[in-house]
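Readers of this paper often ask what the protein records in our data store actually look like. Such a record has a labelled line for the sequence and another for the backbone structure tokens. Nothing more is needed to write down the fold, since each code stands for a local backbone conformation. The remainder of this section carries one protein's record, kept here as part of the documentation.
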Amino acid sequence: MNTLSPLDAAAELAYRENEMSHHAGVTTRIPSGAPLVLVEPVVAVRTILLEHGSGFLYGCCIQASLILGWLLSEQGHTVQVLSCTANEWPHWCVRVGGWMLDPTAGQFGEDDPPLLFRSGSVDDSYDPGGEDPIPLCEEEIVAMLARWVEADADAVPNPLALGRSGAVRPLLELAGLSHLEPRVLRAANSS
């Protein structure tokens, strides 16, 4: 069995993520020196969005950031889900230590944006947003994922199979929150 070194594993993750991004028409990058403990979850969330959310990255930033924040918090990291602006558009991303993580990078037409970057680095093109950080709790995750199901229900016959809602189940599974799926569906149907 051939075991990759941490640097080779990071390079492999970057390659796989970049390949996935090409399928959605967006190329992204992972900067050298990015910690693998942050790279793996941001790539996992983005891959689910691309594979199960019909390739949608648009309008997914708050939901993806909440799931990513939950994953990292469960791993023991101190996490903030922050509002910002990207190319003058309102946006959400995750801050962990001195790193900003953006699983939906590239949705605003940026050229080869990084999925994560050091705050204040040359890659940091985001401006602070005007909204307070979102609390990282199950209620917030349910409410935000229910928005996808509501919006997709108006546009597609089976929203959990098509549209952004197709990513709900795999994202909840990734975060260890499968038990929330019935609550998401009830919240979407009660609006």
